[in-house]
């Protein structure tokens, strides 16, 4: 009798979980009907091609890794090593580099408080340009390089950071993202150590967050993860952020870019 009761309870729990999963899937499918990030991308294209700054130049000669002005497929091979800076850079740090060096922008303007728009605010120009560049690389295959010594070091540091525990709750990235089947409320927590989930996670950011009414970049995603872990504030475009994105990108090799996506 006791064993039978356990079996019934287990079956009911499984059925409830399946119902919950289906409900979440239906909700996410409904979100896909029109992505407001398309507007960000449209504004971003205009900003990318516009002449601005003290030097009155556009960003069309910016080299994102495929040569000056070439944007299609560029984000699928970032972060990567750039010889002109002797650094591994992600899209946002490379974009900031081009805005400063090509257009004469003030480096002090590239901080989280100035780049990340708050709820209800107009998106920053960087957020719009990021949306445009990702949209131009939609369907490109992820192949974040690991041929240069600094690229390998970036990946190694990113992996170390992924497993590092700290903060008041002794948390790490791995606490949420190294096991299958984890979820917080309606949010699945992808296992970033597995190829399929890593590809899905990496290729769908940046994304428009329906709950915030804003398009959010990959740098913002990591910034918010650190906030939720109660870690010290992650500095915008810091080495730590680039290393974590490198780690994620290498694990996502072979995935197809699908950003900007739309999230709850």
* SSE-based structural type: mainly alpha
Uncertain stretches: none
- Taking the alpha carbons of the first and last residues, their distance comes to 43 Å
> Helix count, per DSSP?
10
The main sheet orders its strands as 6-5-7
Instruction: Label the CATH architecture of the largest domain.
Output: Orthogonal Bundle
**Rg over alpha carbons:** 20 Å
Mean pLDDT across every amino acid position: 87
CATH superfamily of the largest domain: Cytochrome c-like domain
**Overall 3D geometry?**
globular
Helix coverage percent:
40-55%
Number of domains: 2
The CATH topology annotation of the largest domain reads as Cytochrome Bc1 Complex, Chain D, domain 2
* SSE arrangement, N to C: HHEEHHHHHEEHEEHHE
Question: Count of DSSP E strands?
Answer: 7
Beta-strand percentage?
5-15%
CATH class category name of the largest domain? Mainly Alpha
Question: Sheet with the most strands?
Answer: 3 strands, mixed
